[in-house]
Write a structure and sequence with these properties.
The protein is of the alpha/beta class and 131 residues long. Helix content is 55%, strand content 14%. The longest helix is centred in the N-terminal third of the chain and has 32 residues.
């Protein structure tokens, strides 16, 4: 995980923000054209845990019965069986404006989910913020 992060950081330093954005967009265009990419966009910065969970439920098409708590998010984001696409991109236009504790929990859930899908192999979960 840290190797990937360091590679991205190095590429960012070499290419700069504009070039990294172009590169990311090209990769996403290829995946979208293949029909194997589900994109969940969070366009605004949710300002509370409840608002974030509501937006995620809608964006990721969580099934009925999905609870409004961190455990439910963790369960759902490591399931995603209702999405037919193998590649799932969760993109945020900016970081959520959460209290520090909730922000930390959200980041940990995302990190754990990305690692889960990397080891599982049935899906790929990509998470971006503002690039």
């Amino acid at each position: 995980m840290f190797g990937i992060l360091l590679t991205i950081m190095a590429a960012f330093q070499v290419l700069g923000r504009f070039e990294m954005t172009k590169l990311r967009n090209r990769i996403l265009d290829c995946l979208e054209q293949s029909g194997d990419l589900f994109v969940a966009k969070i366009l605004d910065a949710p300002s509370s845990k409840e608002e974030l969970l509501d937006v995620l439920k809608i964006s990721l098409l969580f099934p009925e019965g999905h609870g409004k708590n961190w455990d439910s998010l963790d369960d759902s984001i490591t399931d995603l069986s209702w999405l037919k696409q193998k590649n799932v991109l969760l993109t945020h236009s900016m970081f959520p404006n959460l209290v520090e504790r909730d922000f930390g929990i959200y980041m940990q859930i995302l990190k754990d989910a990305v690692e889960f899908w990397q080891s599982d192999g049935r899906k790929n979960l990509f998470v971006t913020f503002g690039i």
